[in-house]
């Protein structure tokens, strides 16, 4: 997603632990530090795993094993085959009067050793099982006998109810692909977009790279893969994200939308109260590891490490490099409203405040008549400034307004109560959706704290949205949290008939604390410059949202195609507008599926080439091939936002209560950023962004081409030929948004909640 922009402009000044060093710093030292960070993460997670249940065994399982050994001993059976007697002999005698205690201790030690051995064996067995990738190569919808056996064994070794981090110690290491295969796949991927002359030159550079440098760089990556759990992830986080000096707004941060067609309550404070309560319920489940691990295609568990930093996390700016600050807990949120900052507690006597009490606190902030102090209103624009500039200003701010800054950076997350409405409107559905997307992506440049892991945005008409900082996790992680939040605040918490949160206010709660910023004079000019830059960046972004409802995932399934591959190839068609025939389309879909499965199994191209480039910079090796690879511009950056928890939504009875996804900025000044989400079985929503300053791009034009491409692709199949006739028969301009807006009124009327947009 948004990291594409950072990867394109990646020019590292390699440093270690925030201190600047020369490029000649030994790569072995960096590999050692990577492994050290990896092992520290493993050790820090161990204690929490022990308290919540060590997988695949728990403390209760140790107690059961110890009790069984004691029972066998009582029945004059020795399951240890004499080992417990030898352990007793090694224990102190204590004068003979504690002979029975020595037996209990010996049994406990033997049980602990046996328990640990069993756990280790199960971990190793599960790791070996999870290294199998044969299931990825099988046709869609088919499963061979070996895969069925493999899946059964995985489920047996996984236990009945695996927890969020249950698989972490059993996940196999990220494999380092063959460098020859990576170069071959890269050349295949660029062949269609390069002229014959340019491709021949690139192929020559690739062969020279394989002959002279590849083996040495690959050796270092293999060494790192054995020492650290992942040979690329920490470098990707550091060099793509944390060392980037570009502003976070638009370039890195992305957004998530509310329900598209309904707003459960028009009361801003009520929606904020339920949403914050639902988010903190998610955090509680996260801390207790009660969130099931994500399974790829329902079979293979994915790494859950990124979930650790959803809450209580801030990206702190540095002059050369940012760092991520994560707190163990935080019992308040930072709130921004009309240029003022507040610290609002979320707990009382260590228990979470009720939604109605949170609504009361938000209403107090909305009713507070005090004006913003000079320059306070635009203070947050600093988080949208270039990172080096913000780092220097933050040093002064930390000295002059340490308490207020800590209240914001130490909050569970940031909440922005916007004074304007947002969302889909009947009067102008297309423009209102575009404005909604733009407000979530950039706001006004000074009403989001872009450093926080995420900002919850609540508009004046009760519409919600999320602005997410990208370095701590990818979109599926925040998307999972957002699905839970929307489903919980609507269907579980709910609202009373007058639109308020259910329950009663708590008049004994103290007022939210207004934060006081003592801003030195030298910061004033920095705030003004940051605001000016943020407005220029914001105004240059062209956002467009296309709800396409002529068909969705169910039609694509009837064509026996992968839904993601279908959309990806349609997006390519929209971008290049080449006519395609069905045979070529199927070949392209199959090729996309093969590349996707290769990436899933760690055999992708970009991360491997990126890591090779990092090693080459450490070693001062000049590689024209790697330099060319990392200087390319990505004109079309795409991403699907998966709906991961459909069980939380009743799509049949409430078809409009499905998240409409989100979007991100373009990866290139003359390119597009396109995100899409399958909303149920009958709709696809696209979020398109580009730069207004470019003469080559237009988000609305691409949106029209996407609709045309989808219909062109659908017409290749007999079952989809009527879509194109229906679309053209109704008139393009009139049907645009009409089919995705007015037809939804019937579905919305089924819901017991109010829909403020109609």
Separation of the first and last Cα atoms: 33 Å
Average predicted confidence as pLDDT: 83
| Arrangement of strands in the largest sheet | 15-9-8-12-13-14-3-18
Structural class: alpha+beta
Name the beta content range.
5-15%
Assign the CATH superfamily of the largest domain: Choline/Carnitine o-acyltransferase, domain 2
> Architecture of the largest domain in CATH?
2-Layer Sandwich
Largest sheet: 8 strands, mixed
Would you report the number of β strands?
A: 20
Counted by DSSP, the helix tally is 26
Q: How many domains make up the coordinates? A: 3
Short characterization:
The protein has 758 residues and is of the alpha+beta class. It contains 26 helices and 20 strands.
What would you note in describing this structure?
Helix 15 links the parallel strand 12 and strand 13. The protein has 26 helices and 20 strands. It has three domains: 126 residues, no CATH class; 237 residues, Chloramphenicol Acetyltransferase (2-Layer Sandwich), CATH 3.30.559; 208 residues, Chloramphenicol acetyltransferase-like domain (Chloramphenicol Acetyltransferase, 2-Layer Sandwich), CATH 3.30.559.10. The chain is an alpha+beta fold and 758 residues long. It is globular, with a radius of gyration of 28 Å. The N terminus and C terminus are likely disordered.
Give the arrangement of secondary structure elements:
Blueprint (H helix, E strand, L loop, with lengths): L2 H6 L6 E2 L2 E2 L6 H26 L6 H16 L8 H8 L8 H32 L14 H14 L20 H12 L5 H17 L1 H14 L5 H10 L11 E4 L10 H20 L7 E2 L3 E2 L11 E4 L6 E4 L5 E6 L2 E6 L1 E2 L2 E2 L2 H13 L19 H14 L1 H8 L4 E4 L11 H13 L12 E5 L5 E5 L6 H19 L19 E2 L6 H19 L1 E8 L4 H6 L4 H14 L5 H19 L5 H13 L5 H6 L6 E5 L21 E3 L7 E7 L5 E8 L7 H17 L5 H10 L1 H4 L9 H5 L9
Parallel strand pairs: 8-12, 12-13, 17-19
Antiparallel strand pairs: 1-2, 3-14, 3-18, 4-5, 6-7, 8-9, 9-15, 10-11, 13-14, 16-20, 19-20
